[in-house]
Write a structure and sequence with these properties.
By secondary structure, this protein is of the alpha/beta class. It is built from eleven helices and 16 strands. A six-stranded mixed β-sheet has the order 10-6-1-2-3-16.
Length: 359
């Protein structure tokens, strides 16, 4: 069984969420503000060299560890316990039905037996964990259990990064689960989310890919990864203006580019992004029994590109918003609110991981 505390289990404060993506490392620390409210204590980001992380795989542990060290120092946190995330494609999840009333030892044996049917690797090559969800539907004598498994080497790479940076990994989550938790907290109580059977689509537009999640009443009913991301715009900037990739990325974020940038580069990219979103929605409709989406959210580093939200809203005709993962939180002294409004959507996964402190 996985020996990182638990993929689903509780953690002991203080702890920070550490999101390692293709483009960089993002850190979030949350605290309690009293009366059940949370406070964003601090957050920080540090870019990664190209090729350090590719398709969710750690290709250069030393470079990533150094970035983690820098982001930890930059943030000013003293917490050395971290929650990390695994890419959804690297984790196999499956709901299984087992007899109720099993002891912990019996449950582990049964889970391992069931897992062998769904995991295409030898069990000694995987980190395996499970969580009892509750009574099985339509069967009082059974219980529903969520099984999660990942290649052990993938888990160990992330643990090694934390350790090399002087930190301790105590929770290993799934990035899409962390994003879902942060979205649920940020939107809880809103009229649109409160409706029964509400269907919400979340598009996380990253550097290399876009992760699509569709949720009904907070439960994932559909997931898909699309090979479209912000690096395409960065590469266009590199070619158009003769900049290095790193300088192009910096200027893309600051907007410090020639006058023709918006018309010649940004507008075509936004059109492509909107087309990817509409195609993903149509694929969802044609490959599932569902025929509607009630609300659409954008997250990731590209979510705040000027004009993207409006274009997607007009093309899909679905009420659309940029995720604000820190909605309703108090802010600690180091937090710059104006900057956070511009960057917040990129911290959705890191915020979800940080929430594990209060699981």
């Amino acid at each position: 069984m996985i020996n990182l505390g638990s993929l689903f289990g509780k953690s002991n404060p203080p702890m920070v969420g550490l999101d390692i993506s293709t483009s960089g490392v993002r850190l979030v620390e949350l605290g309690e503000a009293g009366k059940g409210e949370l406070r964003l204590e601090r957050y920080a980001t540090e870019p990664l060299p190209r090729g350090a992380v590719v398709d969710g795989n750690i290709e250069n542990i030393e470079q990533v560890s150094e970035a983690v060290r820098r982001v930890w120092k930059k943030s000013g946190t003293r917490a050395r316990h971290v929650a990390l995330g695994m890419p959804p494609a690297a984790v196999i999840t499956k709901k299984i039905i087992l007899p109720a009333g099993l002891s912990e030892d019996q449950l582990e044996v049964q889970v391992e037996s069931e897992a062998s049917q769904y995991i295409p690797f030898a069990l000694d090559e995987v980190s395996l964990d499970f969580d009892v969800i509750g009574q099985a539907p339509h069967a009082q004598e059974d219980m529903e259990v969520m099984l999660a498994a990942a290649r052990r080497e993938k888990v160990e790479d992330r643990v090694a990064i934390a350790e090399a940076a002087g930190l301790t990994a105590i929770v290993m989550d799934i990035e899409s689960y962390a994003a879902r938790a942060a979205l649920d907290r940020a939107t809880r109580g809103r009229a649109g989310i409160a409706k029964p059977e509400q269907i919400v689509a979340l598009f996380q537009i990253g550097a290399q890919s876009t992760h699509v999640s569709v949720l009904q009443d907070g439960e994932t009913i559909y997931e898909r990864e699309q090979p479209f991301g912000g690096n395409q715009l960065t590469q266009d900037i590199v070619r158009a203006y003769g900049l290095s990739f790193e300088e192009a990325e910096t200027r893309k974020k600051s907007g410090d580019l020639p006058e023709n940038y918006r018309a010649d580069l940004l507008a075509p990219f936004l059109e492509s992004a909107a087309l990817e979103v509409t195609r993903a929605i149509q694929f969802f409709f044609t490959s599932t029994p569902y025929t509607r989406i009630d609300e659409l959210y954008l997250a990731g580093g590209c979510a705040a590109l000027p004009g993207l939200l409006e274009l997607i809203g007009s093309r899909t005709r679905i009420p659309s918003s940029i995720v604000a993962p820190f909605e309703g939180m108090a802010f600690g002294a180091p937090v710059r609110e104006q900057q956070l409004r511009q960057e917040g959507a990129a911290y959705l996964v890191a915020c979800g991981l940080a929430l594990r402190r209060f699981a």
